[in-house]
Amino acid sequence: MICLPRVISSASRILGGCGLLAVALLGSEAAHAQSSEDPGGAVARFLSEQRITTWARADYYQSSNNLDGERNFFGGTLQAKALPRLTNWVDGKVEVRLTAPDLRDRRGYRAQSQLLEGYTTLHFKHADLRIGKQILAWGRADGINPTDNLTPRNYRVLLPLEEDQRFGTWGARLDTYLSQALTLEIFASTLFEPAQFPLPTAGADVIIRQPGHSVRNGEVGVKLNKVSGAFDWSVSYYHGYSLLPTVASADSVFQLYYSRTEVIGADCARNYGRFGFRSEIAYTLPQDHPSADPNASRRRLFWVNGLDRTFFENLNLNVQLFLRWMPRYQKPADLADSKAKLASTLNAIIDGQEVSTSPGITFRVSNQWLNNTLRAEILSLINLARGDYYMRPLITYDVSDRTRVLFGANFYGGPRDAPYGIQRPDNGLFTEIRYAL
Amino acid sequence: MRTAVTTSVRALRVVGMALLGALIVSMASPPVRGTEPASGLSARDMMQKNFFVSRIKSFKSDATMVLINDKGQTRERKSTTYSVLQPNGIDSKLLVRFSTPADIQGTAFLQVEHIDGDDDEWIFLPALGKSRRLVANNKKDSFVGSDFSYGDLSLPKVDLFEHRMLGAQTLNGQDCYMIESVPKSDSTRSDLGYSRKVTWLRQDNFLETKVEYYDLSNRLLKTQLISNHELAEPATGRWIARHREMTNQQTGHRTVFNFDRIESGVPIADDLFTTRYLERE
To answer: pTM, whole model, 2 decimals?
Structure first.
């Protein structure tokens, strides 16, 4: 019996690989097409009208982003994006990426292609319907978004930008425009895909129970969004699965599952003079309780508030305070059962919730020079409860309109059993040169 | 006899004083043709006309902006702009979408102007996958890395400045008035980043053809040359300049802005200026 979700999953990889090569070659041709006389020129012109862009990227990563101790990755990526307009009311997007993160071809770092997004959008008078693999980015806070529960990230990807981590989810999205300011967004999917991130399991055996692709295991998100005037806001509801796994039990084998969950969320953005204010909050209600960790089934709140301001011409300062609160939290150390204690400790690291009230701060300072061709930024996240932190300095220079170079580093610090401290083995430098074909 | 001589001397004295006065006045004036416009308009009135002459009811355009550094290296930005004038006849709604280079393709900017307050602005970054409210830019901030500031592109209120007629000159075959504008308040000086500017306005339609901008130390900072004026709305006498070139005299960097295509007076639906269209790559 053919399992439709598996077919779709396989098809997306095949499509990603073949489509990438075709789009990259033809897109490059389109970008440089001069002739309108020959059939090849007409094809190239058509492709140009479909707005195809392709990039070649070469990267060096000092660490693996995978807590496995592997070092020194020289890799290459080919990425292509097309925005075809089929008619006045039908258009789409296809974005594919072929990544070879390790030219030494070490196990676990083999080349792979991925369809990042591939969807068609139908535009009606008061609604848009988008069907296919798509990224949905919810939340108005900067960088950490409690309401962003629909789109997974690959935290292990050896590419430097935050947006490189995102990849799409198969589903359907309907945006209904109730007025110029008010939009009702509904998203539904039966093909759950979790986030990919390094598990702090130190090489032990891991069994992950992932929801099957079915209507019964479907997920739905609803958001009412208002954008106009001086104040933007949204309220949202998500019913589906947590993108990050929960440890059910941990002894010789780690058993993980993806928790059925509901999230009620809200966010807003407003300016006060030269200051921009953003706030985002999510209340999470886990729906199932197979974990030995009692905290896994407990309700929790995640709240982010921030201000940003630009000084002089380009110096931007963005500071956010965040708070994770679980009112009935039990400290892992207080649990009698050893399996529960270990599971709870690991979940605390994965969720960043190691005490009942877990505050933190994010800090981003950036500046630009040379007519915005040279940019520098430092991003930092600090969990105040344990003092663990993440810092990422990044310098970007546009050598030309086609060529960009980046230099950066990932620094993790703090206690080795804290969410960022445990990632200290992944400290390292990275660099990329990127060329638009 | 003595009375006639006295009268003559007195007359000569009056004439002499008048001539001396005229000589003093002429030496104090700038070395240009006349300072009193034949139209009888004040400098402030002319700048007011200039403020409104390019307020076009609606237009759609494709534009190319070329940034050239002091070594001659160029960068090119292509964009499509939609603009409508709001009912007050002063504020505009603006949607700008960039198509090149590749790294900013699909990036879009939405602005709802408020002459009496901060503008509402949003940006859509395709890489981010969502739109984001911006803090209204300080008017002196550079527009997408060009030599144009936001205040250069979106003119501030005329009465924030003291305007003074400097005279008249012929520039590129056009008779122009020269008007100096000085910010009235320190906050306006600080917001714009200029201690003063000098504008050459065409005498026939009050369009600017040249503008000099002086920094807060009163040194020449930038020069803008404007040309290829086109009558966009004959019924209302509204014009658009198809070519603008801004040169930063202190760094040698310059930006050349050209409208490749303009359609004015086209019906543009108001709901184009919403995040629905902002996020449509």
So the answer is: 0.86
